[in-house]
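Reopening this ticket.

The earlier resolution said the output was attached, but the attachment link was broken on my side. Pasting everything inline this time so it's all in one place.
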Amino acid sequence: ARAGVAVPSLAFFLWGLSDSQVQAYAYWLLRQLHSGGDELARAVGFYKMVQSLGWSVGFLLVPSWRLPPLVQNLATAACGALGLALALRELPPARIDSRSSSPLLRVVRIEGERVDESAVESAGGALQQQQQQQQQ
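Inline output:
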């Protein structure tokens, strides 16, 4: 009987751990995207509203007598695909800085953000020195 409990218990533990990591990342991302104050409060409120709506709909559909398991899985996959598509639309365009001859030293620049060129060059120089020392 104990062997039958260990695997589901571990699965639920890992599920809870991954959920807390996703929540922490979501709040960190909200803080990065919003300057604070009223704007951040509105963003967190909207996030919690959407999250509560998702939980409500999820609990409505969970019993298998309301919705067969296959349809539950398909609905989950469709929501995940829709969420991914909407998230990818919001990514800023990126440019590759091709001034460096080494593909390892190329810098991806996000439009609207500045990159400290001296820091990039010093990091690149340190990387090249390390590679030369490894070759010797």
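Reporter confirms the inline version is readable. The longest strand covers residues 94-97. The mean pLDDT is 76.
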